[in-house]
Specification:
The protein is an alpha/beta fold. It is built from 19 helices and 27 strands. Bound molecules: fructose -6-phosphate (F6R).
Length: about 625
């Protein structure tokens, strides 16, 4: 949510920052802007809309300079227009600031600054930062770095900022609290700053992840120095990025979402690698091994998450309760954090998050920690805030997910949760050896079966054509396929803007059935398993009201085929693993329908990836 990127060094800064903004555009695309330092001039380029608008505008101007800061915005305060676009200037245009986050006390600060004679151009909360830094600098005749440090003592809220100034042309000053910021150490004495590593990877693999309330000063003469807000100097902890540049490209696919859907055999395989071996009969999530006893003995496991990750958590609840017989509760992180939950040291709270930066999920964890709970994380982004704040955890290894709609991250999360359930069940003795071995083999077969499911793409495209104009859609499932129904509905609504609802199939009779008529497509997960017969009855209820049935069935099913308008077959697998296969056709359906409706699949309206504001 908002992407920031900056460069200082010997190269031309503008093209590097512009390219960085394109990589970060998934974090917001309401407006984009760059301020570039060229000798004694600090030049500003800002445009509403996508980075391409900014690029077209800037092409007509001189963008030369050795240092630049750039921002791609997901609007919080103020309309997404040119004026509200970042960076924001100080009144004398000698300092510019980019910011990701929310300044909660901006109104109070703004009134004080107006009283000090400052004028505001924009409606943003960010503009207070630049005037505050300027005010403090002038009053006490301070360096920019010191003024930034002191200014942050007055600020409440979340921020990742980078400050550029005419007076210190060899320096950029950055700071973070609750919003991510990475420093890249270039190979030519140059430096990069960004919300995540994606704009940096092309130039260097050496990075430092800033911690909360740390200030980084990158200086062409003095190098990188890090201070905490109390002004104590810290030794930078340099890490090596494992990510490869190809992971950030579309690789011949029309959209990132399509690429990421097709990557799932590989991403699930990567998630399983080194963690399961059916021949030797073991499963191990090494990051959690030391905490398994605690998890087994816990009063309950509470999984906190948002959106798609919350759906993965619901699948996890089914699996962990059924296999390991441990009490699991799943909570929306945003609700959990504000409802004064009863938590103590006997609870284990697990956060699930692709980005590892979701503000509500992070805050829910911090709350749980403050009440003495053990906190664990399942994240995709290495080095993310959640992965660093937790006592332990494991990565999903899905690789960078650029499409705003989550796809491969979901199946990787479900894979980790499946392994977690199996490992806990085995350790606790709630699964027989033979069932354990059989399940391990089935788990190892999932990547190949996902590959098979992807072959149904052309069938799915034809089905999509029939329902692309539908105004509404229902998704039904039971057991661990209920969260799959929720996820299918979310995927459709977020990228095609069709109103869609996911329901437990049996709940239909308690209200939603009133919606069904001959125009209502009803997507049903009707695979073989415990509730198969019951789902078949639900299908009949829909048919009796002339609804259109699109069913996901187990290969070879004839029963549902006779009733449904369309079927999509998926390979037979253990019931526990159905979510990993049944989700894929629903992702493809949403993709094709969105495309047919002319929607921007990778950057759906009003959305952004990595929701770093609550
Ligand atoms: C939907 C989607 C969102 C995210 C949610 C949580 O496709 O991507 O619902 O799942 O914003 O994000 P993370 O997993 O990064 O915490």
């Amino acid at each position: 949510m908002c992407g920031i990127v900056a460069y200082i060094g010997k190269k031309q800064a503008f093209p590097i920052v512009l390219k960085g903004l394109k990589r970060l555009e998934y974090r917001g695309y309401d407006s984009a802007g760059i301020a570039v330092l060229n000798g004694g001039a600090l030049n500003m380029f800002k445009r509403s809309g996508k980075v391409a608008n900014l690029e077209a505008y800037a092409m007509e101007h001189n963008t030369e300079g050795h240092a630049a800061i750039g921002h791609t915005r997901w609007a919080t305060h103020g309309l997404p227009n040119d004026i509200n676009a970042h960076p924001h200037f100080s009144n004398d245009e000698s300092i510019a600031v980019i910011h990701n986050g929310i300044i909660e006390n901006y109104d109070t600060l703004k009134k004080e600054l107006i009283a000090h004679g400052y004028t505001f151009q924009s409606e943003t909360d960010t503009e207070v930062l630049v005037h505050l830094i300027d005010d403090i600098r002038r009053n006490d005749n301070l360096t920019i770095a010191e003024a930034v440090r002191r200014a942050l003592h007055h600020v409440e809220g979340a921020y990742a900022i980078v400050v550029i100034s005419k007076d210190n042309p060899n320096q950029l000053v950055a700071a973070r609290k609750s919003s991510p910021l990475v420093v890249g150490i270039g190979n030519e004495g140059d430096f990069f700053l960004a919300s995540d590593a994606t704009p940096i990877i092309e130039y260097t693999k050496r990075v430092v992840y800033l911690n909360d309330e740390e200030i980084a000063v990158v200086d062409l003469n003095e190098g990188l120095r890090i201070f905490n807000i109390g002004n104590q100097e810290k030794t930078p902890f340099i890490q090596k990025l494992e990510m490869e540049l190809e992971a950030l490209e579309k690789g011949g696919y029309e959209h990132f979402m399509l690429k990421e859907i097709h990557e799932q055999p590989r991403s699930i395989q990567d998630c399983l690698r080194g963690r399961v071996n059916s021949n030797e009969g073991w499963v191990a999530l090494r990051g959690l091994l030391d905490y398994e006893t605690k998890m087994i003995q816990a009063k309950r496991l509470i999984i906190v998450a948002c959106g798609t990750s919350w759906h993965a958590a619901l699948v996890g609840e089914y699996l962990i309760e059924d296999l390991a017989r441990i009490n699991v509760e799943v909570e929306y992180a945003s609700e959990f954090r504000y409802r004064n939950p009863i938590i103590d040291e006997n609870d284990v709270v697990i956060a699930i998050s692709q980005s590892g930066e979701t503000a509500d999920t992070l805050a829910a964890l911090e709350l749980a920690k403050s009440k003495g709970a053990t906190i664990l994380g399942v994240c995709n982004v290495v080095g993310s805030s959640i992965s660093r704040v937790t006592d332990a955890g494991c990565y999903t290894h899905a690789g960078p997910e650029i499409g705003v709609a989550s796809t491969k991250a979901f199946t990787a999360q479900v894979t980790v949760l499946t392994l977690m359930a199996l490992s806990l069940a085995h350790k606790k003795g709630t699964i027989s050896e033979s069932a354990f071995h059989a399940l391990l083999t089935e788990v190892e077969d999932v990547p190949a079966k996902v590959k098979e499911v992807l072959k149904t793409n052309s069938i799915i495209e034809k089905i999509a054509a029939e329902y692309a104009e539908a105004p509404n859609a229902l998704y039904l499932g039971r057991g661990s396929s209920f969260p799959v129904a929720l996820e299918g509905a979310l995927k459709l609504k977020e990228i095609s803007y069709i109103h869609a609802e996911g329901y437990p199939a049996a709940e239909m009779k308690h209200g939603p059935i009133a919606l069904i008529d001959e125009n209502m497509p009803v997507f049903v997960i009707a695979t073989k398993g415990n509730s198969y017969e019951k789902v078949v009855s639900n299908i009949q209820e829909v048919k009796a009201r002339k609804g259109k049935i699109i069913a996901i069935v187990t290969e070879g099913d004839v029963n549902v085929k006779e009733m449904a308008d369309h079927v999509i077959e998926i390979p037979e697998t253990h019931e526990y693993l159905v979510p990993l296969l049944a989700t894929i056709p629903l992702q493809l359906l949403s993709y094709h329908i969105a495309l047919m409706r002319g929607c921007n699949v990778d950057q759906p309206r009003n959305l952004a990836k990595s929701v770093t504001v609550e």
